[in-house]
Description:
Layout: E1 2-6, H1 11-27, E2 33-38, H2 44-48, E3 53-56, H3 67-91, E4 95-98, H4 104-113, E5 118-122, H5 129-134, E6 140-143, H6 149-152, H7 159-168, E7 169-171, H8 186-195, E8 204-208, H9 215-230, E9 234-238, H10 244-255, H11 260-263, E10 266-269, H12 276-282, E11 285-288, H13 292-300, E12 305-307, H14 317-326, E13 331-333, H15 341-352, H16 355-368, H17 373-385
Parallel strand pairs: 1-2, 1-4, 2-3, 4-5, 5-6, 6-7, 8-9, 8-11, 9-10, 11-12, 12-13
Helix pairs in contact: 1-17, 3-4, 8-12, 9-10, 13-16
Amino acid sequence: xxxxFTGGGTGGHIYPIVSVAEVLLQTSSEPVDLYYVxxxxxxxxxxxxxxxxxxxxASAKLRSGELLRNLLDVPFFFIGLLQALWxxxxxxxxxxxxKGGPGALPVVLACAFYRIPIIVHESDSVAGFTNRVSGxxxxxxxxxxxxxxxxxxxxxxPEYKRAAIEHKLALVGNPxxxxxxxxxxxxxxxxxxxxxxxxxxxxxxxxxxxxxxxxRVNDFFMSIAxxxxxxxxxxxxxxxxxxxxxxxxxxxxxxxxxxxxFRRAYxxxxxxxxxxxxxxxxxxxxxxxxxxxAIFEIAAMGCPAILVPLPESARDHQVKxxxxxxxxxxxxxxxxxxxxKHTFLTQVDKLLADSALLASMASAAKAFAKPDAADxxxxxxxxxxxx
Length: 387
């Protein structure tokens, strides 16, 4: 069996592909050959280490309000389409699994041309351009947020079209690494804090700014670092690969008048690898942007969260993700424009003073998470590949 994957080269596209591929290799009763055609970006090793053969194609990106750059990208789209037609012809897969994003649409169109079954998965609450177009050719569409349905079913659409799309739509969640689905209790939280060299008797806030970090989130936390520590709140702050050194220098300047013991309660790391599991397990509160991957990882670990969505995200999807997730009771959303010392510290004080509220948020998070997302998608891949 030959399975083809595609998806733009960000972690939000690639990590779900990796999760699905891992389950597929464990589940299939027959030998499976895995291929990726698209734009893997810096994540190519994540794919090849799972035995996936990777081929690159040229890509174009549709940018809102940037007509000239969009026009300049048109030739790259058609180059990518020709490359995809040739590569798909040589592979001739049994099925395509597409995550959308740059480079994915040519592969979807090539597979549609060869009448290869297509599964599209949308991680966010509002679908991007590639997935909206790809959905027209898909045999099945998986969505992570219920409101994403509105991206594929438009108001005024003929009933027969609406029925056809609803038939192939399913709310499946977002496939994430299985390390996040593990039991967590008070003892596990205490052990995780000790493992990370934090005081288990004090609350811990974990800040996740993404792999590159967020300068604005970093600067905000530097402005409240002393107040958090004076409240006996510990902080583990992922500042990002590009920003950790600068943020660490800022923190050193702020903390130079304090003792080593006081300073150790605020720790900066560039990036969480596998340690993200222990960090989330130890966290009393997580502060994060509102990408789908981050939300579903936080939910899987049952972490109460304060979400600060990226205001410039495409189609405002992070704001929409954040508010849809917060509506379950698992998180509080604070938009960046409203992120002030008073607002944030008031929310933190309120949460840490109410253990019942934290427990309720943790339960709501677990209820939102869908640990079988990858399994459901794999079963659909296996079913459609035999059509």
